[in-house]
């Protein structure tokens, strides 16, 4: 059975980053209306990413020799939770900063590190992740996109879908088959960096239910990639992807996706009703959400603490994500209900923030591994399978 | 220190608070042996300041002991006695011998648990609290239920003492006991699912059952984290308790208790409803703990009002300032 999560605290030297970040954000997001800020880590704005890069806040955890700040996971935790709480548009650099960069740092060659990491830190290289395919969703090992060795490179054919920001990104790190067949499952998979401007790459944005086009279908037709497009070891794609996911599942982005809505509602409650005049139901609901937020944040920080100690708390991370996304999905449901009570007319921006968050909330528990997959991982951790 | 303390508590409870002993005390049997062992180990004085003869521990340090008591569904007010003795000692009052229940003021009387023996009831009032002898209590006959009984002291017995309001402290003790009980319920549910065979295989082999136990695991982890958060001693209450932390933890643990109990009973099937299985000792501990010293509605409203009247206008800022994983983080 999995052990308890001991409390972990953010070290003071990392907390020290917070005031500067908060001061920056007060100006940087002041003019963005809440219904835009509600897009959270789906809000795409390269200029904002460049501003962060200018402050040295991209690639915070990357080594200094590659343009990073050489800080630890807790420094990034502080940065990310402030960015998300404020609803800053972080999507352009998000994947590169969180996932692709660390992956290249860990599994890449020296040449790959020297090429990609400084560009990520300067907001000049945006990444997307090619995992799902038209016939591959939760069953990720069934990918059929294939890279075949040909002369001094790889020939890539296949298609990826639901790829966030593919149409805006410079590179995709794709999970592809370099050997065997779909029946070989985890064996024969590799990760490959695709230059999305290479001939034969066709990207078709897909409009989502909120009218945004944040994801795309990407088709590869005889795309030729150099040999050094391979990242890590040939055939080790599955293990590499899983190492990547442990870092992805327990961060503040699994707790704060509805933070803008929660704060807008709380602010309106304070302003509209005046102190002492909010309804008892609204007060109790607010208290309930605060209690959940406090416990989830402590769990998320605790998992980060374990990661910092070099452990791989995959099951604990899955558990934080499942609970955290449940909380994120609860917020629009209960706020909609409480605002449906008779009373003062809620402001338009609050209602539009609610409408956006409520409509997109189902995706919170799909991205990064569905509930069912996560619960399967927890069950395995508990020795049930 | 921590693990040594909890190991000795676990050992004491396995020897003197096994399900047979717990059932006997619940049925009205004498708690003398178990309580005597607890006194001998010094647990009831754990929070009493060292200069007053106690161990001078803080909330976080005794949490594992109270969770262990929860795992065994110990039907005695160990946490409450710890808190009451600490508060009395800190106020310079004499600490009486024996177990002390914390009463919840109700209609001029004190609501106390239906099960559990004690020598005293400490009842908060307008100016301090009353220390009331159990021996002189009269039970409000119409008001008793498995959730608790209401006691009155017709003669107006008791001494008025200058101790702070222990209502949040009582809630903290329930949080600790519930978190411990949930740990044990999870262990027993996983074990049962692995042993019980249906359709020719253990029920744990069914995905529907696995997913439910995963949800239960999440809530047990959340409850345990809530208990740890509530025990960070950055408040000015007894043992360093901070009512804001306790409020959040009591609410979250109460919610977890509902879901954990429901899934545990679902997985155990009809067997879990029998007197013979120990499961009900633990799920009953959750049912009573959830509503004692304020449930979700009470603490939710209380916490919501504190936020609305406070300085932080953002929820994350409020959580960082008051409900973070360590004593006050730097605020900006």
UniProtKB/TrEMBL annotation, chain A:
Keywords: Flavoprotein, Oxidoreductase. InterPro entries: Acyl-CoA_Oxase/DH_mid-dom, Acyl-CoA_Oxase/DH_mid-dom_sf, AcylCo_DH-like_C, AcylCoA_DH/ox_N, AcylCoA_DH/ox_N_sf, AcylCoA_DH/oxidase_NM_dom_sf, Mycobact_Acyl-CoA_DH. Residues 12-124 form the Acyl-CoA dehydrogenase/oxidase N-terminal domain. Residues 128-223 form the Acyl-CoA oxidase/dehydrogenase middle domain. PANTHER family: ACYL-COA DEHYDROGENASE, ACYL-COA DEHYDROGENASE FADE34. This is Acyl-CoA dehydrogenase family protein.
UniProtKB/TrEMBL annotation, chain B:
Residues 170-292 form the Acyl-CoA dehydrogenase/oxidase C-terminal domain. Residues 5-93 form the Acyl-CoA dehydrogenase/oxidase N-terminal domain. Keywords: FAD, Flavoprotein, Oxidoreductase. It comes from the Bacteria. InterPro entries: AcylCo_DH-like_C, AcylCo_DH/oxidase_C, AcylCoA_DH/ox_N, AcylCoA_DH/ox_N_sf, AcylCoA_DH/oxidase_NM_dom_sf. The keyword Oxidoreductase applies. The keyword Flavoprotein applies. Signal peptide: none annotated. Its cofactor is FAD. Belongs to the acyl-CoA dehydrogenase family. This is Acyl-CoA dehydrogenase family protein. It comes from Roseomonas populi.
